[in-house]
Amino acid sequence: MKVDEIIELLDAKIVTGRICELKTVGFKHAFSSDLMSDVLRLTAENTVLITGLCNLQTIRTAEMAEIKLIIMTRGKKTDDFMRAVAEENDICIIETDYSIFRVSGELYKAGLLPIY
Questions:
Q1: Helix axis angle, 80-88 relative to 56-64, nearest 10°?
Q2: How far apart are CA 86 and CA 104, in angstroms?
Q3: pLDDT band at 43, cuts 50/70/90?
Q4: Per the CB 3.0–4.6 Å rule, which of 16, 25, 30, 62 could disulfide with 112?
Q5: Is a pLDDT exceeding 90 seen at residue 32?
Q6: pLDDT at 25 (0 to 100)
Q7: Which alpha helices (H) appear in 10-91, and where do they start and end?
């Protein structure tokens, strides 16, 4: 699934990231968690992180786990510093008002696979 499809499906907006670079990436898996220690255990490539944890730890964890797309749920808004760190690490962040449950369900229904 392409990032522009995800944005449209979730009525989301992009807040950071080089969307043009991600347009060709086909995301295959999604993982939902607010517990970043679980995210660090991920090994699948092209994974989307769905979370409501909106702080710098999320960005740093995505960096270590080589995640290039983070979906911030529940209307959470990133701050300038988080966006700057994400940009430095080529991480795209999109924000949606949908819950983690709804985002997970919509993406699963659209064909993204779970990690577990």
A1: 10
A2: 22
A3: confident
A4: 30
A5: yes
A6: 74
A7: 19-22, 36-39, 56-64, 80-88
